[in-house]
Design goal:
Distance between the termini: 45 Å
Number of helices: 13
CATH architecture of the largest domain: 3-Layer(aba) Sandwich
Shape: globular
Number of strands: 17
CATH topology of the largest domain: Aldehyde Dehydrogenase, Chain A, domain 1
CATH superfamily of the largest domain: Aldehyde Dehydrogenase, Chain A, domain 1
Helix content: 25-40%
Length: 456
C-alpha cells in the first residue's frame, strides 16, 4: 500500500475520532520527542550548524505547540459551532441551521530548512493538521535528511503506540516526490515554508490540478522596521544594538529577520550599528543557502544608489531612495537601511512596500496616525516595540501576511493555524441523532457555541 492509499484509508477513522483521542496522539508525539532530545539535537546540529542551545529550545517549542493544539481541540471553539434555530416568522422563514468546521482530508506538508524541528517533520503544520483529523504526508527537507528520518520514526512510533490508525502520518523524500505530492488526487491541502520561487511553483501546481486544492505557503518577507526621528534621537544607540542582534540571529536565517529599516538621515542608529555587529558569521544552514546569500548580497550591493556600510560577517547597506529591486529578501545576515529626510518622504517611501509577515514601528510620543495604516496594510503582525524575530506560539498569534509573504490570509503559527485544514459544513433540519456531537442540542462536548446569535 502506498503512503497515499494509506492516508486515504486512514481518513475515515480520523474523521470519526474524538478530540480526546487526537489530543492523546499529539501528547504522545510530544512526549516521545522530549524523551529523544539527546539523540535528536546532536544530529540536528551536525546537519544544520544551528548549535545545541538553539536546537534544544526549538525541540521544546515543537513539543509545546503539540501540547497547545491538544488543549485547543479539547476546548472546542476551533470548530466554530453555530446554531440558528428554526424561525417561521422571519422573512424568509428560517429553517433549523447548524454549521461547523470539518477536516479537509489528507494534507501535504513541505518541511522548512531553517527550523529543523518547529517547521519541519513534527512542526506546526503537521501538528495543526493532525489535531483536526487530517492525515499528514511530510516532504522532508534535503538540508537535514537524517534528522527528518529519525523524527519521522519517532512520530510514527508514538502514533502507533497511542492507537492512531496506520496511514495517519508518513514521510517522503526527493524533488520528484515533492512535485508528485501536491498533485496527487488524495491530497486535499498543502502547507509549505520556504522560498518564493519554490512556493510559487508548488502553488501553481496546486491550482492547475483538475481539482484545485488550497495551498498555504509561507514565502519571502523583508519585515520592514520604521524608526521615527523622535525614537532615534531618544534611543538610537539602543535600537542599533537591538537591530544588530535581530538581523544576525541564527545567521539571519529567520523568516522574520528585519531586512529593511527606515531611519532618519544622519541617524544615531546608523552611526552606532557597526560596533554592535558580531565578530564572526556562523555557518549557514547548507551550501545552497550560502551560495544564495552571496548572490543576493552581490545583487543588492551592486544596485545603483546602494552604499555598503559593512561587508563582513554581517552586511549592512544603505540608500537614500528606495527602488523595487531593493525589496527582494536576502536570506542571511544582511539588512538595508533606507534613509529619509522627513515624515512626508518616509510616508511616500512606505507606499512602495509589498506584503510582509511583520512590520515594526519604533516611535516616541509623536503621532503615528499616518504610519500605522500603511504598516497594517502590508503586514500580518505589527510590532510597537522589540524586534520581529521572536514568534510566540499562542492563541492570538498571526504568522502570515499579504503576498509575497504568504499565499493566503491564514496563520501558520498559533492555534488558528488549524483553520487552514478545515471547511465549513451546514446541516439543515437534521434530526438531532444524526448531527455531530458539536451541534447536538444538548451540547454533549460542552464546547463554546454561537446559538441564535449569542455565544453560549
Amino acid at each position: 500500500m502506498t503512503v497515499y492509499e494509506a492516508a486515504a484509508a486512514a481518513f475515515p477513522t480520523l474523521l470519526t475520532s474524538t478530540v480526546t483521542e487526537r489530543a492523546g496522539w499529539l501528547r504522545a508525539i510530544a512526549d516521545a520527542l522530549d524523551a529523544a532530545v539527546d539523540e535528536l539535537v546532536p544530529l540536528a546540529d551536525e546537519e544544520t550548524h544551528l548549535g545545541p542551545t538553539r536546537l534544544r529550545g526549538e525541540v521544546s517549542r515543537t513539543t509545546g505547540q503539540l501540547r497547545l493544539f491538544a488543549s485547543a481541540i479539547v476546548e472546542g471553539s476551533y470548530l466554530e459551532a453555530t446554531i440558528d434555530h428554526a424561525d417561521p416568522t422571519s422573512t424568509p422563514p428560517r429553517p433549523d441551521l447548524r454549521r461547523m468546521l470539518r477536516p479537509l482530508g489528507p494534507v501535504a506538508v513541505y518541511a522548512a530548512s531553517n527550523f529543523p524541528f518547529a517547521f519541519s517533520v513534527a512542526g506546526g503544520d503537521t501538528a495543526s493538521a493532525l489535531a483536526v483529523g487530517c492525515p499528514v504526508i511530510v516532504k522532508a527537507h534535503p538540508g537535514h535528511p537524517r534528522l527528518s528520518r529519525l523524527t519521522a520514526s519517532i512520530v510514527s512510533g508514538a502514533l502507533e503506540s497511542a492507537g492512531a490508525p496506520a496511514g495517519t502520518f508518513a514521510l517522503v523524500e526527493g524533488y520528484d516526490e515533492g512535485v508528485a505530492l501536491v498533485q496527487h488526487s488524495v491530497i486535499a491541502a498543502a502547507a509549505f515554508t520556504g522560498s518564493v520561487a519554490g512556493g510559487r511553483a508548488l502553488f501553481d501546481l496546486a491550482a492547475a490540478r483538475p481539482d484545485p486544492i488550497p495551498f498555504f505557503g509561507e514565502l519571502g518577507s523583508i519585515n520592514p522596521v520604521v524608526v521615527t526621528e523622535d525614537a532615534d534621537r531618544e534611543n538610537g544607540a539602543t535600537l542599533a544594538a537591538g537591530l544588530a542582534a535581530s538581523f544576525t540571529l541564527g545567521a539571519g536565517q529567520f523568516c522574520t529577520k528585519p531586512g529593511i529599516v527606515f531611519v532618519p538621515r544622519d541617524s544615531v542608529l546608523e552611526r552606532s550599528l557597526e560596533e554592535q555587529l558580531p565578530p564572526a558569521r556562523p555557518l549557514l544552514l547548507n551550501d545552497a543557502i550560502a551560495s544564495g546569500f552571496e548572490r543576493g548580497r552581490e545583487r543588492l550591493l551592486d544596485l545603483p544608489g546602494v552604499e555598503t556600510l559593512v561587508d563582513g560577517p554581517a552586511v549592512v547597506a544603505a540608500t537614500d531612495s528606495l527602488s523595487h529591486d531593493m525589496l527582494t529578501e536576502v536570506f542571511g545576515p544582511l539588512t538595508l537601511l533606507v534613509r529619509y529626510a522627513n515624515r512626508v518622504e518616509l510616508v511616500e517611501t512606505l507606499h512602495q512596500l509589498e506584503g510582509s509577515l511583520t512590520a515594526t514601528l519604533h516611535a516616541g510620543d509623536e503621532s503615528v496616525d499616518d504610519l500605522l495604516p500603511l504598516l497594517e496594510s502590508i503586514a500580518g503582525r505589527v510590532l510597537f516595540a522589540g524586534w520581529p524575530t521572536g514568534v510566540a506560539v499562542a492563541w492570538a498569534q498571526h504568522h502570515g501576511g499579504p503576498w509575497p509573504s504568504t499565499t493566503s490570509q491564514h496563520t501558520s503559527v498559533g492555534v488558528t493555524a488549524v483553520r487552514r485544514f478545515l471547511r465549513p459544513i451546514a446541516y439543515q433540519d437534521a434530526p438531532d441523532r444524526l448531527l455531530p456531537d458539536a451541534l447536538k442540542q444538548a451540547n454533549p462536548l460542552g464546547i463554546p457555541r454561537r446559538v441564535d446569535g449569542r455565544i453560549a
